[in-house]
Amino acid sequence: MGIRDDAVEIRAQGWRTLAALHGLIEATLERELQADHDLSVVEYTVLDALSRQDGWHMRMQQLARAAVLSSSATTRLVNRLEDRGLLTRILCQDDRRGIYTELTGQGWELLTRARPAHDAALARALAEAEQTPELAPLVDVLHRLPAHSKAVL
Fold first, then answer.
1. CA neighbours within 13 Å on the CB side: how many for 131?
2. Which of 47, 57, 59, 64 lies in disulfide reach of 111, CB 3.0 to 4.6 Å?
């Protein structure tokens, strides 16, 4: 194996490690949110993303990026959340083809109740990951990120 092959393998191992950490975190969050709040991780992600917007709404394509979903999957998810009364869609005043998605009062209430459970589950998952030698360096990097950094949407 040459140097170039070694670099590829190092990147691949790093990606596998990151995927393992992501899987551990997502599984922990999914169990907690489903059991206590009847929310999936992606549903929570959508509610959380909407809550962090100025004016509390987003265009559907922005929401798709925030939830890391295709346009069609985002539409299905928004339909389910709208049927549950957690969000609503609003036509854009400037562009009649544009649709905004916005939290309802009920969506805000559920998010407010679910956020502490989400945060506690995340802390537990990270503490568990710190005990795994392969994952501990990634957890350390997460702890060193600035608290004020914003999620990439």
1. 6
2. 47
